[in-house]
């Protein structure tokens, strides 16, 4: 990710500041997305009402103490 | 950053799922199979129970089901993998917000995960063998998810909040689902003997404890490992 700055001398520090600020908000967005993706995976294998998925992950559900039947 | 989360979650999930499958095959799987023999047994003993009082293990006849043996082990491993990667993604997401200072700190995160996803829900809905009568599935799932969410919020407030009032409200949030109470069936009954049920509860709780400690420890270790190169000069830590 490159950010063009008009002044070459102070460019490095401006870049770093912008990058750090971007990282903070990016970090939150990425973390929340990953959290949701993770929750979806657990939901899919552990809580989905699709019969074939239930049957495939049946022992996983019982072992993890997820509500199964 | 996304790569770091994906790598951590992928490898952690894989290792933890393999460990879980191994543990299950010694601990819970034999008990599940044993419980199923009671389910599949022809109901020769005609009790005076009303028809349908025993909500059996009714599977849709048309839905695919793995055959006992390698198919079942493989599909359980698949299920374990999806669940383990899911939980590992959540842990890795938390690490990007609060980087663990050591792999041992990951063990604490793992224990927190165990409290949120195993201990708190099982207080109301204990691990059950196939053939156990329980309340409506969706109601139990809603209570389970609600309990996990409130335990996570409650624990986070109790551990990270500075103000005592927030800490106390964390404790209150943590307790609320248990005051509300988990959905219970009108009559408790099970096909498998009580001793088998008790054995299964212990086996499930212990297996999950080992799984979560491993998940926390491996994820923090891998996350810290993949964090190191990003701090080298010349590399952009943003991506």
From TrEMBL, chain A:
Transmembrane feature ranges: 28-46
InterPro entries reported in the protein's UniProt record: CbtB_put (IPR012667)
Pfam families tied to this protein: CbtB (PF09489)
Superkingdom of this protein's organism: Bacteria
Keywords assigned: Membrane, Transmembrane, Transmembrane helix
Name of the featured protein: CbtB-domain containing protein
Organism: Pseudomonas petrae
Organism lineage string: Bacteria, Pseudomonadati, Pseudomonadota, Gammaproteobacteria, Pseudomonadales
TrEMBL record, chain B:
InterPro entries tied to this protein: CbtA_put (IPR012666)
Keyword set includes Membrane: yes
Keywords: Membrane, Transmembrane, Transmembrane helix
Membrane-crossing segments per the record: 73-95, 107-126, 141-159, 164-182, 202-223
The protein's name in its UniProt record: CbtA family protein
Organism expressing this protein natively: Pseudomonas petrae
